[in-house]
Amino acid sequence: MRQTYDDQADPGDHSEQWETTAHFREVKAAVTRPLRSEASARAIRYATEAETAFGKEHYREAADLYCDAFCEFTLVNPEEKWHAKRWDIFCHYGNIFTRQLIKPNTDDMTTLERVKCNKKEAKLLRIHAAETRAFLLGHYYKDPYDAADEYKEALELSQRITQGERDQQVLSCMSLSNEQEGLTTLLDKVRMRFVGDVVDENIRRIQAALLEIEQDDEWNVQDKYRTKKKSSSSDRRARDGSSSSLSSSNHMPSKKTSSTQKSNGGGSSRGSLHDFSDRSAAYSDHVSESFAPMPTTKNYTAAATANMKPTKKQPRPKLNPQDLPQLSRKQMDRLLSPPGKECDACGKTLEQLRMHQLFQCSKCQLASYCSEKCQQRQWIQHDGYCRKEHVIKKGDFMQIHSVTSKPTWNGQICKVLGPAPRGRFQVVRVTLPDTPLDAADSISMSATKLRRLRPLK
């Protein structure tokens, strides 16, 4: 069970540890800061109930309670907008979905959308809402285009964050897996962090996610638009849980929903951001004028290619038999064996040399030698292959990994035939001499899916 948020908790025998360093005193001051309203006290109580539900694996109930707590915190005095617990609660709410504990419903997508669009909200929370929503669109709804748009919106928000916001401090997410770990473990994991550092981490994750979408082997832009029509606005509203009244007005209904679902431990699903319980109805009246209307995400790529005429798919070029490489099992074993077991020049092993480890090439980290003499003797052959990891040339032997469109190719050895469009490489699978040649075993592959292997002698 994870640590609960209890402002009245007594540190007991560990009280001396709180006072040992200024860092721990700072954390304690942030966690136990006096609350100025009844709404704040309710928020902490809901967060505590959410922690209990999470420990019992009632993830749907925990998500609803976390959202309740976040809504109550929004009602506090504006100067408490940067309360450390508020960010922590919102992180726990989003992590339930990004850790794939439960599938988000349309109400969760609406919650994240409205937090992202609220201009009075802290930009840190808006960035996190956009990033979480982008992950859910790509993972659950299989919509990489809208996911990329959400990631780009998060990057735009991160560029508009002010220095004053970057200098704010928030409480890092606590993730204790066992209550028995005690207060000492809690002190090791709880720390205050500057908002600027958290935003910089988000930017790195977002950029990596965008690169993954662009280089995904299952994603071909032209084929996508030839086979799938652009989703209509009604489909998007149905997915996000929004209606035409929401797009034309900022009013947010406070009517309690009557639909319930049982999922992952018996929690009931709510209707929308402010409909799922009576205690959050006040939040609707408080922020009905704060939230901007939910805009429909514009797909610029679709608009640019709307008038393009579909082209006939070009057949894959056939390869000559001599272009299909074949290696012996001994050569394959050498390619796949990790460096450092034997000298690449004289071939002696560590046992024969009576050495604990060999010297490695400092540039490519793939060649091993027992002495400088062997390294100089082997340099003429190694010179054509020695380069940094991200440099790929024609004729290199690589190992394929993390390919989802062709999972049978994962772990296979391939040879680079040359560059391909869109920054990719044309590769062909390496076969054994007794394997029949197949001219169709050629494919364009992203550089991120290729791992360099040791050079052949």
Automatic annotation (TrEMBL):
Disordered: annotated span: 224-276, 305-326
Stretches of the chain forming a coiled coil according to its record: none
UniProt KW Metal-binding keyword: yes
Domain MYND-type: from-to ranges: 343-386
Keyword ATP-binding in record: no
Low complexity composition-biased segments: 241-256
SUPFAM superfamilies: HIT/MYND zinc finger-like (SSF144232)
Pfam family, one: zf-MYND
Keywords annotated in UniProt: Metal-binding, Zinc, Zinc-finger
GO molecular function, one term: zinc ion binding
Domain of life: Eukaryota
Record's protein name: MYND-type domain-containing protein
